[in-house]
Write a structure and sequence with these properties.
Elements lengths: L2 E4 L2 E4 L3 H4 L2 H22 L5 H6 L1 H4 L1 H6 L9 H5 L2 H22 L1 H5 L6 H29 L1 H22 L3 H14 L6 H9 L4 H9 L1 H18 L3 H22 L1
Antiparallel strand pairs: 1-2
Helix pairs in contact: 7-11, 7-14, 7-15, 9-10, 9-11, 10-11, 10-15, 12-13, 14-15
Amino acid sequence: WYQRRVRGNVTIFTDPAIYEKVPWLWVIFAIMFTALFLPSVIIVRSPTPDEVCEMTPLCDESFEVNKLTSDHNYSVVEMLKTCKFYVLYVIVMTMSLALLTGTEIFKELAKDTIADDHFLNVIGAALAICNAFGRLLWGVVMDKIGARWALFSAFLIITPGIVLLYWTRLMPWPYLINVCVVSFSSGIFTGIAPALVELFGHRDISLKYSICLSGELFGCLLFYLLSIGSVKLYSDLVFLILLAVPCGVSCIAGLIFI
């Protein structure tokens, strides 16, 4: 029951020996997570005013002039009254679709075309690395060119990238590159916080960020509904197109309204 057949080859898909190790992996993960974050709770604190003044970049006049930020510090209520917030909210929702495309369905799409489970696992590791580097580099890009053009550029890559998965899954290495590009571009997710600062100012930024990230809920719900339909109602190609269309809408909306 833990084997599958692809093009006449039998490959291991869900080995019981691996399943037996999963609970312990979660325990190890929890220990590592605690070991990383518990010291930060004890050690990390907000800097004093004197310490802030000692930070040369923050006191440098040119830095303040070139920093991308809103001229007006919106309150949360004021932010909720703007069109830009709801455009950004939809963008967060569609970012969830891009992230889930890379993390949740890359194996499902290729299970009948790539007869190598180890290679599919390599893809999973590679896309995680690409997403991590994408978060770093998209943050740099957003600081340089602003939220509008950074979001536009990312979704301009993501939209066709999602649809191309239908054809690249027929070949292992092109599929690996395709998935990594989509995962790298979805790293723009890290730019939501600076985008909020640029559009609405620093005031109550943590609360603004939390409200904006609630769009992930609707993105996950939409992904779930579309994935249910892909089982019986439509093909994989239609499923990918339905995932890509909201990303294309975000690409255009971000360029026009943000």
